[in-house]
Amino acid sequence: MRIHIVGAGVVGLATGKAFARFGHEVVYSDIDPAAKARVGDAGFYVFKKGGSAEADVHFVCVPEDAAPDVVRYLCKYIAGAIVIRSSVPPGTTARLSRELGRTLWHNPEFLREATSEQDVLWAKHTLIGWVKEGKDALKQFLLISGLYKQMCVEVIECSSTESELVKLFTNNYLAMLISFWNQAKVFCDKADVNSHTVARLVALDERVSKYGAYMHGAP
Known about the structure:
Order of helices and strands: EHEHEEHEHEHEHEHHH
Structural class: alpha/beta
Shape: elongated
Mean pLDDT: 89
Distance between the termini: 49 Å
Strand content: 15-25%
């Protein structure tokens, strides 16, 4: 299968490299000239008006504010499945689908920059959010879901607005945990006690998440 990644940043590169490991041909587009150095000349397409890479699936991995315009551009020139991987406000994918009159998909990423490719390859599950059913919707879903099933990643189907909300809530929840442990360290410092020791003791309760504690709870 030929996969087109729009945006050769952390998310785009991790996604493309993971799929390439399973024998898929991956090409990239990016308006940043420096992106070519990250990708290499082979398989790099300059994203410019008048043409785009031909592929079976196009993954949009660009900053949130650029995603709608990128999707609009792709819809003018390609017929393949368009998957928004960017974090976008709830309702964005559905609104674009209505505006452009075609099926679109939302497949949020849950990656850490330091281990981004590993996080794609070893994900327990992935969400594939749909907008509407069209004559090509089932074929596109099978193409997209097949990429992940090949990596033994569980595919969960839901609406695009649901997947957008899951991404939003997950980001905010994890940020809340980090803020919690940061504040805990402030209290520990004022009490002149080791914040890492306190964090470990607090996290003995199985109801308490350790996320952020090992990075931000230590002295």
